[in-house]
Design brief:
heterodimer; A: about 110 residues; mainly beta; 5-stranded antiparallel β-sheet; globular; B: about 120 residues; 7-stranded mixed β-sheet; 11 strands; about 0% helix; about 50% strand
């Protein structure tokens, strides 16, 4: 079974760049890597998705090495409102051939003034 | 607002009881996903339906079952409830089948289940 791990928590100051890494050493072939942000008592919200190399959108960048066994979410110039829990999501094909979605363990980011 | 609705918002019940959680996907989305989020287990994938058929299955207990109806709304049935079933239950939806599709999952606000 795929194990998808992330650092438990990180602290940062406003205006700094934050990089959060997810290890997914058993990612399913041809599967995408997706990152979500979650605030307390709310559903996760999509941030960014990628398959290979680097993807950038208006809020974040995603770096994926060639072996795709990890990915790094980069948040430029964080603000207090970025304080949340961040999850990566990958797919896994288990031995029975069925597909399942695996969320990472989550990283609690605290942005300080 | 993601466009995904879930009812009820809160549910309090006793051990041994049975409850039904309801999810309406975004307009036009054919896939519905169910997740359980508890403090000690994080976000756990339970099951996915695509256009009425089961598409992917996670660590869903035998006491739990789900279905997707012709109007595409979905229900998650939890029976013989135990204290450990207390959690937030989220539903998400996507237009396509998921599983290697570049699909962003849109999550509902969740149903908080408390089993006493």
């Amino acid at each position: 079974l795929a194990k998808t791990t992330q650092p438990i928590s990180m602290d940062s100051y406003e205006g700094q760049e934050v990089n959060i890494t997810c290890s997914h050493n058993n990612i399913a072939t041809n599967d995408y890597i997706t990152w979500y942000q979650q605030f307390p008592s709310q559903g996760p919200r999509f941030i960014i998705q990628g398959y290979k190399t680097k993807v950038t959108n208006e809020v974040a960048s995603l770096f994926i090495p060639a072996d795709r066994k990890s990915s790094t979410l980069s948040l430029p110039r964080v603000s207090l409102s970025d304080t949340a829990v961040y999850y990566c999501l990958v797919g896994d094909v288990v031995t029975s051939g069925t597909y399942k979605y695996i969320f990472g363990t989550g990283t609690r980011l605290k942005v300080l003034a | 607002d993601s466009g995904v609705t879930q009812t009820p918002k809160h549910l309090i019940t006793a051990t041994g009881q049975r409850v039904t959680l309801r999810c309406s996907p975004r307009s036009g989305d054919l896939s519905v996903y169910w997740y359980q989020q508890s403090l000690d287990q994080g976000l756990q994938f339970l099951i996915q339906y695509y256009n009425g058929e089961e598409r992917a299955k996670g660590n869903i207990l035998e006491r739990f079952s789900a279905q997707q109806f012709p109007d595409l709304h979905s229900e998650l049935n939890l029976s013989s409830l135990e204290l450990g079933d207390s959690a937030l239950y989220f539903c998400a939806s996507t237009p396509g089948q998921g599983a290697r599709d570049a699909n962003e999952q849109f999550f509902g606000p969740g149903t908080r289940l408390t089993v006493l």
